[in-house]
Every structure is written in structure tokens, then in C-alpha cells.
Amino acid sequence: MADAKTPESPTGRDYRETVFLPETPFPMRGGLPQKEPLILEQWGDLYATLRAARQAQKAPLYVLHDGPPYANGDIHIGHALNKTLKDFVVRSRFLLGYDVDFVPGWDCHGLPIEWKIEERYRSQGKRKDEVSKAEFRQACREYAAGWIEVQKAQFKRLGIIADWDNRYATMDFGTEAAIVREFHKFKNSGQLYRGSKPVMWSPVERTALADAEIEYHDHVSPTIWVKFPVTGATDDHPDDLLAFRHANPSIVIWTTTPWTIPANRAISYGPEISYGLYEVTAIETGLEFEPWAKPGDRLILGDKLAEDVFKAAKIATWTRLDTINPSGLECAHPLAALSSGYGFSVPLLAGDHVTDDAGTGFVHTAPGHGADDFEVWKAHGHHEVPDTVDADGAYYPSVPLFAGLKVLETEGKKTGKFGPANPAVMDKLIEAGTLLARGRMEHSYPHSWRSKAPIIFRNTPQWFIRMDEPLKDGDTLRDKALTAIDATAFHPVAGKNRIRSMVEGRPDWLISRQRAWGTPLAMFVDKETGQPLHDAEVDARILAAVTEGGADAWFDRPDADFLGRHDPQRYEKIGDILDVWFDSGCTHAFTLEPRVPALGYVGDRPSHWPADLYLEGSDQHRGWFQSNLLEGCGTRGRAPYEAVLTHGFTQDENGEKMSKSKGNTTDPAVIIKESGADILRLWVALVDYAEDQRIGKQILQTTVDAYRKLRNTVRYLLGALDGFDEAERLPLDQMPPLETFILHRLWELDGQVRDAYADYRFQDVVRPVLEFCSNDLSALYFDIRKDALYCDRPDAIRRRAARTVMHEVFIRLTAWLAPLTPFTMEEAWTTRYPDAGTNCARVIPETPAAWKNADEARRWDQVGTVLEVVNEALEESRRAKTIGGALDAWPVVTGPADAFTAFEGLDPAEVFRTSGAELVPGGDAVTVEVRLADHPKCARSWRRVPDVGTDPAYPELSARDADAVRWWDSNHAR
């Protein structure tokens, strides 16, 4: 094998110039941080270029609809993962021959931006209420617009191609009008209603929250066991239950929300639970405090939980007196002794939600502060629900004993911490003699995902979309949504069960919020009937105004501008805004539908509805996927997507959640600056995105190593193909067995790559290709064919075959990897074909079926078995310094005859990369004797073969090398 050094020859000639070494300007080092911006500049509006080309080819249309990131702050690694996966989809569909519609978008309304603007005003010494709503909303709009431009530039640097010039944003005037139009569809179809029920409420943010806006964190809450004295019983209870000679029994409840005790109106019990009447006989002694329980106290408890309650109350001994049926009992409120405001009776209500898994077997029921409480209260015929706390989470002035006290702190350094309400209630219960025990418990508790502060359940009037009201066709919105889920393809398939269970159990859709920055519930309500106004002309005037002036038009213009013939005094103008999930749930309606040719669109940006794919994180089963599902089913009878793909979340190298406070975040901008976008993209391609992924310095180094393998493979191909043209191509029927095998592998990989891209299995593209580069190319094909490439004469069949196959490999590798590492493949393609246009515009090359050759694959599998034994023997001889290199060896390989059948038609020395070799049938296993090649050394190829010196004109060369040098000399004669 030729090398940089050539041994001295008798003629003194240096043969290096006659060796056909690879030549390419494609560098070994990527230099991606410097090259990628130049490639982006060369591409220009690549997305528009590709769409125009595919439309000219009348390609089928594929639609990926973009779930909008929030326009607030620099992109993080989660954004990078998400948008890169979407780019894999877009680029791979272009590669597969599709025209691809992908319009990027941004979510702009909502609390995070409101907070930022409030902070800005506070820093200027202004309160929010000192600024006009119009000025405040304009500041929010400008803030979001600035971040859209920042994030857009960051996504572009990542190599994301999209219809950037026509991006959507939920704050655009036309978009806000479209959202109002979708809202009106629900209003006018009867699916909308105003209800008063407990909703998740953020006192810190002063607004209701939907399920999708909640996250759970560990939280320490106070726990209390409270006695409700029994004051009445029906005749079927024991005669002496309330006898004067005994202490009146008390029903004991347990709760983690002491602040809700003033809102208590009932106690719920489980009809299937066993309850008992217990009498305290002794209290624990030797304590540092005096327990509130006393001997003689009578307590009614769930039997299964009685011992746990006694332990908490420091009760040492007790007696079970009787079995009790709670039905028909009435109690006094535990604060009745302190205020006549609590002088009402507290009934016992049967409820299926009550269990005896924890607590006391009874549930303190405050219908204004819990969904189950509300439902059981209503189910038993009660209609009035008390309002106990206001929007700030403070008790209303009408609440006896506790007026004005806050449940949670909403301002300052203690924001989100417990306020004075809990301790005040406990103190009053002690004063009333109804507190039995108290403690603390760490548990998972709902928090606002924006403020990170705990939420409360609070009864408020809100607007809802009905899930279970039959529509015109008889199906409910829930029915339609579940049918749509079953008709949707999910990647991974487990996503279907996840979203299905959520939709099956979800409550009515809460869509109203009490904030300033958002799309309004632009409607009027009849003050007499409480029903929304249904008037097409009014709706049309609202839409026209919002289209022209955005949401401000609704808030700022007088009611008469919209109401026309209707009396403004009769109607209430709704000032709430829509939940941001309703906003983003409408994106299909204003991004895709207006560009459907069948609906009249004639431009050059066609789309179709429904979209082929939605792609987001797995948390969006309860967020964007579900809001789009409900919006589409509620207005169009089906989901706006055919398929849903979800990815997991990115963790640090140790599998821990990333956090700035921990210092374990990975910034995509830093990766791009230090290593290049293609490294980050390759990491995305290599991970199993369906699961949570890990990233960090060590993992990225592994990615860099994989990138080097790909880059070096492409570089070798470029060098080996220097000067190749079609005249050199060799037909399939003249290909040697090794080339036939590599073509078979290309045929095999082509099918795998196409299927993997079609099913969004990007890992199943890059990993087999990497293995092909390492195992089939570098370790086998390139190594075997180096001698032929460097030393055969250019018109030799073997060399022509190798270059023909390497051309086919290059053509396919640069196509297959273009969606994943587009910058590197673009650099490689334009290095070889500077005038052929962008690599990104190519359609994946067709691979002839004639390349399929299972027999050749089996042959090389058998050859590989023998080769592995030979390589081990050669390596052992190198370590023993018996040989310097493989060309010093002449192995004699002995083994069963059938082990060598695969070598028919092959030169074993060529396969082993030795100067010679012998295959000797015999024995039960393959064994190798490494003998020295006892022949002169060719001064050009370094092979030790018998025909060195047989050509008198070139006495220091083998016959093959002499022929090649003669060709070289004749073509370079002066």
C-alpha cells in the first residue's frame, strides 16, 4: 500500500507522484461555527425555493402545523429539540418528493408577558392601574413583537427552514379577529354557558387557570382534625346517641386547607364505609403539651381510620360503643360558638368521592372550594354556593371572624407563601374547642406553571364550553373528541391512551380569564336572561372592528358601535379575555384553512385542512393537542390533524431536570457557537426523542465523535472521486463481488431510510447510516479498495468499479443525511458540484431493484467470519513484532471447506489486505498461521509479491504497479 514515504528503489525514482492519492478541498475539520452562517446566506429563502420547485413538479402536498412557542425570552434546549424535529420532518418530506407547508407561529397573549410589563412599570414607579389598558396592551404587543424577531433569528441559525415571511402570531389583528370568529361559533351553537363553580384560581395572578396551566410540586400544608358536634339525628339512630347524660358525639373531619373551614356547609360520607361511635378512655401521658382530646369525648369515625386519628390526637385508649350510619345526622359548624354567622346546620351528604384510604372517612365539604364538594352539594338539591374569598385570595368582608385575611401572600418577597388565614382559623378552632389535632404534611399540590405559586379552588362566575351537551347531530363534544382521537395516528402509539383518558375525564372547558392582555370574549349578554346575544349583524360589526384595530377595538369602542338597533342599557359587555389555550387552539383555523385551494385559495402557498401532522412535547396532550382537538371538533366535527407526534423532555447528563438555579442547563446558542448547529442537530437525530433525553458535555462529545465519522467518510469519498465522470462508470454486470455487496447495502439502506423518514424515526436513519459508514465502508470497503484506488491504473476495471460505487454512495449519503446535518451535506455537495444548485432541493435518488443481492450479502457475512479470525491473528503478530504491517504477512488459513466457499471468485489476500494468502481446507475450526511474505517489496505499493521485478523497465515494481506507472508516464510525458 502506498504511503507518504516510498522506499528507496534501485533506480532512485520517487514513485509518490504516480500514486493516485485522494484530493479534495473539503477539510477534515468542520469549522461549522464559521461556515454555517455563510451557507445560510447562500441559501437565502431556501424554503420558498423548495416550495416553488416542488410545485413546479406538481408534487403532493404535506402539511406540518407549528405549535406556537411563547414570545418571551431566548430559545432554550427544549425549543431547539422541538424545532429541529420539525425541521427533520419538513426537510425529509421535501427529500421524499413532497411540497411542504410549514408556517411558524408564536403565542403572544397571556400572563408571562403581562408580568414583564407590570415589572417594567413598577421599576418606573407606576402601578398597573395608573396606566391605561390601551397603553398597557400596546406595551405587551411591542414586547412580544421584539421577542418574535429574536427567536426567529435563533431558529434560523439552527438551520430551520419555514415560511418565515408569513409567520403567524396570536396577537396580529387579523388573527385576533379569527379567534373571535371561532369563539362566536361556540357562542352561536349553544355550546357556551356562564356557570358559577369552583375553578382553579391563582390569587397571585388574579385569574382562573385551566388544567393545562397547572403543574404539580411538593408542598408542605398544615393538616387539621376538626370536630363537628352532632346536634340532630333521625329516629333510626341509637336512642341515647344525643342523651344529656353523655357528651354529645362529634364527627371528625381531616383537611389540608384549614382556610376553607369558614366555607364549610356540609360533611360528606361514603355509603359503603363502616363507621363507629368511639369513646375516649385515656390520653397519652408524658407529653410536652396537653392534647385537646379529653376522656369521655365521643367521636364518630371511619372504622378503618380510627386508630390513625387516635394516634394523631394522642389518645391512648378508647372504646368502640356502636356502629353508626351517618345518614340523617346533622352537625353544628365548629365555629358556631364564636359567631352567629356560623349558626347554620351542617348536613351529612352521601358521596361516592369519599374513601377510607386516608383521613377520617368523612370529607369536610366547602362547595365553593372544591369540584367534588360542589357536585355533591348540588346533587343533594342545594343551590346557593357561598363566596368566601375574593380574587386576591382574601376573605370577603362578610366572612365572620376572618374578614380581609389572605390565604396566600400575593405581593413582595413572600409571594406564594401562606398568608395569615390558616393560623387564624386554627386559633379560632382551638378557642371554640373543636380542634382535635393538627400536623404538617408534604404532598404534591397544584401550582401555576407561570408564577410557580400554589393555586386555590374558588367559586367564580366563568364561561365554559359544554362537553356533554348533545349537538345537532346528537353527539356531544366529548363524543366527537373521543371519536377523533380514535381516528388519529399517534407517534408513539401510547399517546392515544394518554389523551383519551384525559378527554374522557375532563370537566367542561373553562375558556374565560380575568386579565388584560388577550383576545376578548367579544360578546354581549342580556342582563335580564343572562344569555349571550345571537345577532349575525352584531357579530359581523365586532369582527370588522377587531380586524381593523385588534382586541383594543372591543375594549375601547362604545357599545353602541357594535349593538346597532339593540339598546346598550339592556346588554352587558363581557370584559374577560379568552384562555390562551383557546387562542392557540384556533391556529389551524387562521393558518391552514384560509389557504385551502378547494375553498378558493389561488396563491403560491397552498395548504390543506386537516394538517398531516402536529408535533410537540408530550405535555401537550393536555395542552395544544387537546385545545385544537376540542376547537376542531366543536366547530368542524373532527380534529384538525391526521397524526400527532410527541417528544419527551431534555434533562442533564445525570437525568435531572434542568434548572438555572442548579446551573445544569445547556444553552443551544453556546453549542452552536462552539461546535455548530449540525452538532446539535445530530444530537437530536441520535436520541430517542419519544423518551426524555439527556444532554451535556460528555454526551455532546460523543455526538462530535459520530459527526467526525460522517464527515471523514464524506471527505474520503470526495477525495477518492476526484475527477470522476460518467465515462468512467462501470455497468452492474461487470462489478466485482465486493462492489456488488456494497450496492446491495445501498439498496437495503435506501428502503430503511425511506421507511424511517416516512414514520418519523430519525434515529433509524442516522444510526444505520453511521454503522454503514463505520463497518461496511471504513472497516471493509475503503480499506480493501485503497490499494486499487491508489495504485491501479485509472482505466482498470477494479478501480472504475470502486469509483462508480463510491459515486453512488456519495450521491445517497448526501441525500439521506441532508435533513439531519444540512450544513455539512450542503458543503460536501457543493464541493463536488459547485454549479448544481443546493443539495437541499434534491429528491432522494431512486435505487435500482437490480442492486438487491441477498446471495452477495450472505457471502460477505461468511467472509466476515473468516476475516475476523485473520485480523485477530495479524494483530497478534504485530504486537509480537513478527510483522510490521499486514503487507509483510502471508497468512495460511486452515478450516472446514464450507468456511471457504464464500471466497470463490475472491482474492483472499485482497480481502485480508495482505501481500498474499492461502486457504487450506481441513480441521473443524478456522485457524491462522501468519507467515512472512517472502518476496521482494514493491517500491510503489509495498506489496511483497512474486512478480516484483518481472517488468525489466520497472525492476522494483510489481507487474500491476509497473503497468500503472507505464500508463502514468505515457500520460505525463513532456
What would you note in describing this structure?
With 974 residues, the protein is of the alpha/beta class. It is 37% helix and 17% strand. The chain contains 27 helices and 30 strands. The strands form eight sheets. Strands 7, 8, 9, 10, 11, 12, 13, 14, 15 and 16 form a ten-stranded mixed sheet that branches. Strands 2-1-24-25-18 form a five-stranded parallel sheet, with helices on both faces. It has a four-stranded antiparallel sheet with strand order 6-5-17-19. Strand 1, helix 3 and strand 2 form a beta-alpha-beta unit. Helix 10 runs antiparallel to helix 11, helix 18 packs across helix 19 and helix 20 runs parallel beside helix 22. The longest helix is centred in the last third of the chain and has 29 residues. The radius of gyration is 39 Å and the shape is elongated. The protein starts with 31 loop residues before the first helix and ends with a helix.
